[in-house]
Amino acid sequence: MPLVHFFETSFGRTTERRIIIVEVRSEGISGWGEVTCGENPFYNEEWTDSAWLIVRDFVAPRILGHRFETAADLAARVDHIRGHRMSRGGVEAAVWDLEARIQGLPLAKHIGGGAFAEIPCGVSIGIQDSVPQLLKKIETELQAGYQRIKMKIKPGWDVDVVREVRREFPKIRLMADANSAYTLAEADRLKCLDEFDLMMIEQPLAHDEIVDHAALQAQLSTPICLDECIRTAHHAEQAIRMRACGIINIKLGRVGGFHEAKRVHDVAQAHGIPVWCGGMLESGIGRTHNIALSTLPNFVLPGDVSASKRYWKRDVIRPEVEVTPQGTIRVPEAPGFGYEIDFDFLNQVTVRQESINAPSAI
Questions:
Q1: Does this model's pTM top 0.85?
Q2: Mind listing the domains of the chain with CATH numbers?
Q3: How far apart are alpha carbons 165 and 333 in whole angstroms?
């Protein structure tokens, strides 16, 4: 699926997405999930082609034909697979959607959410070709009603650019996302961002550097938000205990699905750490799961869940996800994730398909 506009981070520029969609069937009903990894192993160790093999050769054989009491039991069944949480999470999300549909429940309520009838929305804006281009995109998103702007930064596109954004938009809720582009040796550079009244600086240091993030947070007045570092509730507990962050971004795929996402949410809530839902350039299927996740009560900050039209000329769900003029998304009340699959379009963009059938029930 080609993006409406390229999306650039410190990892590189993305112009189209190759996305794995998972369908699980039971009792004549289908549930749907999305494997949210990128095309390259830059955000984490996973990428589209590796995820295909992990789902086909390891996750599916482990769960097919097995009787689960609840969708929450699936996580333990595949927990022996080390890493590859996005591959596991895409399947797990589909099973949660399936169970919600079987029970006739909206997915948001089925996962224990439903705290909000509407969720607040922000946008993530990638690195642009010029500062004027960035300012224009920010203006467009603000006019669309979005409540928070996240701008990507990297060395050479950071302090001076943020200063220009703040000069143009002095009152907006603004945050910066570095995607692990810096080291602790560059702390003085990052401290310069304190003057801009940012909501947070997201993941400035390496994906596995909780200790260094704690050292950096002690030098900053701006809260650090951890993303890539937090793959489990235990990681969240460690980071909070070390005062490595003041905010946590929960991405459904990064933590391996709803079961672990809820555990991370609960740990953060117990320690008074707010969370929000990050995005991975998902299709509408992954986006609807993010909507459901964002209804858990500690998701008190605007996330990266935004309208389909920001990314796709046509999405694979109907109706497409829309944002109100007030910068919110209404949580659907239909069973499952609450939208219909646009099968005509999904079939048009499908380039590879494989069906794996269950053996006799175990």
A1: yes
A2: 2-104 (3.30.390.10), 118-340 (3.20.20.120)
A3: 38
**Whether residue 319 has a cis bond before it, omega within 30° of 0:** yes
**pLDDT tens for each residue of 311-356:** 999 999 999 999 999 999 999 999 999 999 999 999 999 999 999 9
Residues carrying an active site annotation:
152, 251
Length reported for the chain = 362
Distances (CA, A) of 285 to 23, 163, 193: 11, 36, 36
Q: What is the rounded CA–CA span in Å between residue 323 and residue 321? A: 7
pLDDT in tens, 131-158: 999 999 999 999 999 999 999 999 999 9
DSSP letters of 17-40?
Answer: ---EEEEEEETTEEEEEEE---SS
Name which of 225, 317, 238, 341 is nearest 276 in CA terms.
Answer: 225
Cβ 238 vs Cβ 75: under 8 Å = no
Which pLDDT value is given to residue 361?
A: 46
